[in-house]
Amino acid sequence: MSIFTYNLKQTNNIMTFFLPNCDRCDKETNSMIGSMFNLQMICSDCKTKESKHEMYDIAVSVESDQVKGGNYNYEGIGLPEDLK
Ligand SMILES: [Zn+2]
Predict the structure, then answer these.
(1) What are residue 43's phi and psi, to 5 degrees?
(2) What's the pLDDT at 21?
(3) How far is the CA of 25 from the centre of ligand 1 (A)?
(4) Helix segments in the chain, DSSP class H
(5) Counted domains in the chain
């Protein structure tokens, strides 16, 4: 049994109403995390994929510079073509 199924049973299916779809692959997911490349909320699979991308370190450092500079609405450097 996957952790995912287990969570649903534990919460009396209440979660099914709130289960979001990943902005990138459109798969249902129980863990969403913000992309470093843009404003998408993505699943852990997509996060793993983007974190291995050669541009990821650059995206992270640009993001942290922007936040340090007070730009909390920074939209990211944009999603690389091969991650779309
Ligand atoms: Zn995804």
Answers:
(1) -80, 170
(2) 92
(3) 4
(4) 3-10, 44-51, 56-68
(5) 1
> Residue 44 Cα, ligand 1 centroid: separation in angstroms?
7
| pLDDT (tens digit per residue) in 60-71 | 999 999 999 999
Rounded CA-CA distance 8/13 in Å is: 5
Query: What is the residue-averaged pLDDT of the chain?
Result: 85
Q: Which two tokens stand for residue 83?
A: 């991650």
Domain containing 36 equals 20-74
In the predicted structure, residue 16 carries a pLDDT above the cut 60: no
Residue 21 CA to ligand 1 centre (angstroms): 8
Q: What is the pLDDT of residue 19?
A: 80
In a domain, 7, yes or no: no
Calculate how far, in angstroms, residue 71's C-alpha sits from the geometric centre of ligand 1: 26
Q: How many whole angstroms from 24 Cα to the centroid of ligand 1?
A: 5
State the distance from the centre of ligand 1 to the C-alpha of 31, rounded, in angstroms: 10
Residue 8: both structure tokens together:
């649903």
